[in-house]
Specification:
The structure holds 2 protein chains of 2 kinds. Chain A is mostly helical. In chain A, 77% of the residues lie in helices and 0% in strands. By secondary structure, chain B is mostly helical. Classes of the chains: A mainly alpha, B mainly alpha.
């Protein structure tokens, strides 16, 4: 399989994640769609690392995984805090910071 | 054999991604994301990234998804209302997504990277295995490695501060 297949697949997965962020309103599903986009980036990084025969792209993918894990932890903490205060779990209702 | 595995992994990854977006219950979305992550691990193995594939399955599909499942069970799967703040949002968003996909594909495929059309150079059996990745992490990329460990620590403390009980708070 040529590398272009993997790169096009990663572009497709990224677009699906972006659509999810645009149409969903539950903060948890939006976090899941962010994961989709980060994983699409990871797939592109690993594909390019294979293309040039260099393992440093895989290190980059691992660092992206660490950052994604941090984002999940903080995001889910925020969701639990919002739920505890009995605020609506809907990104269109949580608009106080919009000004 | 490799094309069959690639298309199986690609169909799984794409189906999981569409499931995450389309399923209304957040719990099912999390399960679809697990399917997606396992399929991506297959693709990583095809790209000779054994350690990244293992980390994907253990860290993501294992640890992070358990966190998601717990929060989904705690918060509960409330369905979203059909109210649209922007008229036609559900129709417009897939069109914009398709445009994004076309744009990304054109940007990548029309670039002058000639190696995109090949399988990549021949690499030895040690490419991407834990020993090679570990040597790179602990020698050349030691500073980013330690910085990411500090980032994880800060995230853990932040999550406890955000979600933990405060003394005197009535719940």
């Amino acid at each position: 399989m040529s590398i272009a297949w993997y790169v096009v697949l990663s572009a497709l997965l990224f677009a699906v994640g972006a659509v999810g962020i645009l149409i969903r309103r539950s903060p948890m599903v939006i976090l899941l769609c962010l994961e989709l986009m980060l994983n699409a980036g990871n797939l592109a990084l690993v594909a390019f690392s294979r293309m040039v025969g260099n393992q440093q792209g895989q290190i980059f993918a691992l660092v992206v995984m660490v950052v994604a894990a941090c984002e999940v932890v903080v995001g889910l903490g925020l969701i639990v805090a919002i739920f505890r205060r009995k605020l609506p779990l809907d990104v269109d209702d949580l608009r106080e910071l919009r000004g | 054999m490799i094309p069959v595995l690639f298309f199986l992994g690609a169909i799984g990854a794409l189906g999981g991604a569409i499931g995450v977006v389309a399923l209304r219950n957040p719990f099912y979305s999390v399960l679809a994301l697990i399917v997606h992550l396992f399929s991506l691990a297959v693709l990583f193995l095809l790209l000779t990234a054994a350690f990244v594939a293992a980390a994907q399955v253990v860290v993501y599909a294992g640890a992070v998804m358990v966190l998601y499942v717990f929060v989904a069970a705690y918060v509960g799967g409330g369905g979203e209302s059909a109210w649209e703040p922007i008229p036609g949002q559900r129709l417009l968003a897939p069109l914009l997504g398709a445009a994004l996909f076309v744009e990304l594909s054109i940007a990548v495929l029309s670039s002058s990277l000639l190696a995109l059309g090949h399988d990549g150079p021949h690499v030895g059996p040690g490419f991407g295995n834990p020993a090679a990745i570990g040597r790179l992490l602990l020698e050349r990329f030691l500073v980013p490695f330690e910085a990411s460990s500090i980032l994880l620590l800060v995230a853990a403390v932040g999550a406890i501060v955000l979600a933990g009980h405060r003394r005197g708070e009535a719940t």
